[in-house]
Write a structure and sequence with these properties.
single chain, about 300 residues, alpha+beta, 10 strands, about 30% helix, about 25% strand, globular
Length: about 300
């Protein structure tokens, strides 16, 4: 029988789907997945049985906790103990980076990252009591949501107006977390769920794969607890920008300050821009001489 020392990874999470089926038909193609299962199968793993008691876990959680309500503004508190009273007020408690406080989960997220060929995964817990839920939004991360207890109704549809969003996206008319990403819009944001939205009821043991950029809203019933395994960073742009900075800093000229770049005297600013152009030209020439293998090494 599996114990806390057993390996728990993608294979165990997505049964009866195979890794190949899941990667090709859902993960890489950004398509929703609903996998029915039985919570009894997961209770054999120690980390699952220990997460069923939110009150016990909350005592250990010392980080920032978000409190989400379908009809009220979101709140933040420090520590799980302060968050618990909000369960009875219709709020959903959102614990992020669970692996920082729960070592057994850390083994799982590392295994999932390896199985999915991703640099890093992280974990979250959502807990609620009675009837509560989360309003319509689309996330920028990939989310494997395993329901441990209670029942959850999902309504979901693709956000076709914003491809590969960089932050959470709210529907039209709602305050955006990051207004700047709306410059990437290729169409009009939906103000409410599209008419072709799908509805799914998730029971304990069922797994939901929520792809990036899908509108969804939820209604939870009973003592509802779910654990999420997510991937949210980096993008190709961020990965390259970080690697590029690390490489450029090896050159003392790139470590210099941009003197006169903001000068109001045109001749001084032109000199600064010319110097910058020379640095860029120099790097472009060196990049052209790099093989694909050498470029790949930059990204590590």
């Amino acid at each position: 029988m599996p114990t806390s020392k057993s390996v728990f990874g993608l294979k165990e999470l997505i049964l009866p789907l195979s890794r190949k089926e899941f990667l090709e038909n859902h993960w890489l193609s950004n398509e929703w997945a609903y996998i029915k299962s039985d919570i009894k199968r997961f209770k054999r793993y120690s980390f699952v049985s220990k997460l069923l008691s939110v009150h016990d876990f909350a005592q250990k959680y010392k980080g920032r906790v978000s409190l989400i309500h379908r009809d009220k503004p979101a709140l933040d508190v420090e520590g799980g103990v302060k968050a618990l009273p909000f369960l009875e007020k219709g709020y959903t408690i959102y614990f992020r980076d669970v692996e920082d406080y729960f070592p057994m989960i850390n083994k799982v997220v590392k295994q999932l990252a390896a199985d999915l060929n991703m640099p890093k995964m992280t974990s979250e817990i959502f807990a609620s009591s009675g009837k509560s839920g989360v309003g319509m939004h689309s996330d920028y991360h990939l989310n494997l949501n395993l329901l441990l207890s209670g029942k959850k109704e999902w309504l979901f549809a693709k956000n076709t107006a914003l491809v590969n969003q960089t932050s959470i996206c709210m529907p039209k008319g709602k305050k955006q977390v990051d207004q700047s990403q709306l410059k990437y819009l290729s169409g009009k944001l939906d103000a409410q769920m599209p008419f072709n939205a799908k509805r799914v009821t998730q029971n304990p043991g069922d797994l939901m794969f929520v792809p990036r950029g899908w509108w969804h809203s939820t209604i939870s019933y009973g003592e509802c607890v779910s654990v999420n395994f997510i991937f949210k960073d980096p993008t190709w742009a961020r990965l390259f920008a970080s690697a590029l900075e690390a490489e450029l800093l090896n050159d003392p000229q790139w470590r210099d300050f941009p003197y006169n770049l903001n000068s109001k005297i045109k001749s001084e600013r032109d000199v600064a821009l010319k110097h910058f152009q020379n640095l860029v030209d120099k790097y472009q020439k060196s990049l052209l001489n790099k093989s694909s293998d050498n470029i790949a090494k930059i990204l590590k």
